[in-house]
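Thread: Fpg/Nei family DNA glycosylase, structure

OP (GT): Posting the sequence first so everyone is looking at the same thing. Length is 299 residues per the record. Can we get the structure tokens written out before standup tomorrow? I want them in the notebook alongside the other entries.
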Amino acid sequence: MPELPEVEALAGFLTEHLAGRTVDRVHPLAVHALKTYDPPVTVLEGRGFDGVTRHGKFLDLRAGDVHLVVHLARAGWIRWSEKLSDAPPRPGKGPLALRVRLTEPDGGGGTGAGGGNSSGFDVTEAGTQKHLAIYLVRDPQDVPGIARLGPDPLADDFTLEALTALLAGERRQIKGFLRDQGTIAGIGNAYSDEILHTARMSPFKLAASLTPEQVAQLHAAIGSTLADAIERSRGLDLRHLKAEKKSGLRVHGRKGEACPVCGDTVREVSFSDSALQYCPTCQTGGKPLADRRMSRLLK
């Protein structure tokens, strides 16, 4: 699942590649993915994108007074092409959900500018579980998921004091706390595992039980983990972003491998609707967590 660092990289890539281009044609192909109908996506045609930003895991492409907002969910992605075929894509059972064909900076390319292959991007979703969401809105706050987002962990106002206030009285496990988009925006399953490993903290620890020193460790781990991931992704082609994410992870998705810090074996337990990975030596005092969904909390 794309999380904050990958969406940040997508925003940077698109900012660079959309410059000087206008939308020639928009082809919505997956009805289930399109969550809004007024205004229709065709109002993008003839406009240029004048800003690309991120709200948590939501990608926001601004075109004048409208915003094309995309949530990639578990298996969505953006694919850029310098040579899209002029033939309109056919709806079907493939991964393509939305195609945006662009004119070139010099005015060439695109069916509306004299024909010929042109650049553009596809929004795709693999797999059978379809959770990709595409919106066209006047205000990003009209997207329910954006309206409920918590603070951005890379914002200047996400201070140690701000995190301390969020944790006060919080009775959830710290893993669930970090993943809740209404609490902190942009952190998902993978980077919550990485943050907790860096902070040397059990994923089942009660959030409200953290000492001031542990809160400071967690705050530092959030900042460093996300910043490092963004730096590794900077300037990469979209085709290589997913592989870069996986290669940079130390415990997430590494069940059975050696922890790069202490050499212990990375273990896995079920958590909520997914699985988490952790290092017993680094995070739980050497004690393995019970591998069942209703495991007792480790203090």
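GT: Both are above now. Quick notes for whoever picks this up: The first strand starts at residue 23 and ends at 28. The mean pLDDT is 91.
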